Amino acid sequence: MFRIRCIAFLLLLTPAVWPQDAIDIGNRLEPFVDHLLIDRMSCVTLQLANPQPMESVLQFDQPWEGRYCGYVTIFRDGAVVRMYYRGLPESKADGSDMETTCYAESADGIHFTRPNLGLYERNGTRENNIVLAEQAPFSHNFAPFLDERPGVPAEERFKALAGLSSTGLVGYVSGDGIHWKKIDEKPLITKGHFDSQNLAFWSLQEQCYVSYFRMSTPEGFRWVDRCTSPDFRTWTDPVVMDNGGVPQEHIYTNQTVPYFRAPHIYLAIAARFMPGRRAITTEEATRIGIEKDYAGDCSDCVLMSSRGGNHYDRTFMEGFIKPEIGPENWTSRTNYPARGLVQTGENELSMYVQHNYGQTTGYLKRYALRLDGFASVNAPYAGGELQSKPLRFQGSQLHLNFATSAAGSIRVELVGTNGEAIPGYRLEDAEEVIGNSTDRVVRWKSGGELPPVASQPVRLRFAMKDASLYAIQFK
Q1: Which CATH number characterizes residue 466's domain?
Q2: Which of 324, 351, 370 is the last residue of a domain?
Q3: Which residue of 135, 181, 210, 443 has the lowest C-beta tally within 10 Å?
Q4: Do residues 62 and 36 both lie within one domain?
Q5: pLDDT(372) > 90
């Protein structure tokens, strides 16, 4: 019956004249994190990836850190991977003087160390890695980023937002990522709840600064507002992010970043919070030493995406990084993702998740994916097809990030504006793409060069068997 349904659906893929409107992807990398490029699928599915748990990269075990460390930010700055996080050894009201902003760094995104900075005294000593303290409430959720706007002054190469609803979001700048100063005593953004990790970055896609921060819906859900700025000083009024019409959920931290290999796509590895959804018993809570207030909720990570504007795509409602085995992984506010994606190998991408929040064993753990491998179009052994929407492109070759089994394969056909396959680039002309690679050139009998279609759009037709397709790019 499955094979009959697939054959019937394939009839929908027969040649037909199609509209002249086409998506111009130029030579951009296009990972399959949404349905934008997909017109039709037959017996293939768009599936979320499963990041693999790796090692602990930092134990929050210093006296000024403790069980309530949180709101982690990680990004690469040339040869250095920088990490910032809140230090908080005891449960206090948001914005207490006990909170600090701590710093660690790494050469590879895997092994982090705490530099002894000597800037602020804690517990009778300055031998620590604190970069901000004694400025409550701004260490509660200090959220730095590397400003990649062309021409940014050297003394403002790093920027940050911090603050609560009582203060608004105050801006900070730094030339070295260690020594920080306020832009102004007055807040830059004033309309919002802000009781979370409030983010900003320079958008190459939109040519402005964008900020994503906490708001609450009329129904009481934690959710996300967004505003923009040409100069990081003057900001528009907030606009609520649209979630594409899916059921509303509590999103605690959104962690939106432009994907560094495809900066026109923003990826949000967000904390999905489930208040009142208790997963552990009173006895288990006592055994792991969690405070009563942190035993009755649970959370995981979800993947959202955006291509600019006030829209989040929620193609994937399933958990992206799910809680691991053990009651320590099912407490309130654990499993919160750090903000940031770091390439940690030629074909490897890493993200980071907090574990054991509210426990004396709190730590940050690394999770690994293949490069661009957030999601994929997957075909079974019986085979299936994907047809793209009309695309305009720049380049002379089509590159794939893909994987097949030993028995699997991918073949690609180019379909012209008349709805018919371009001669020499039909499925029967295509060489089978077999293997596992983050960058493989598609070839036909004539070679790997694309036809001289100039500005004419084409559709891509993928015939797949026991294969996964993660991303495409014309070069």
Answers
A1: 2.60.120.260
A2: 370
A3: 181
A4: no
A5: yes
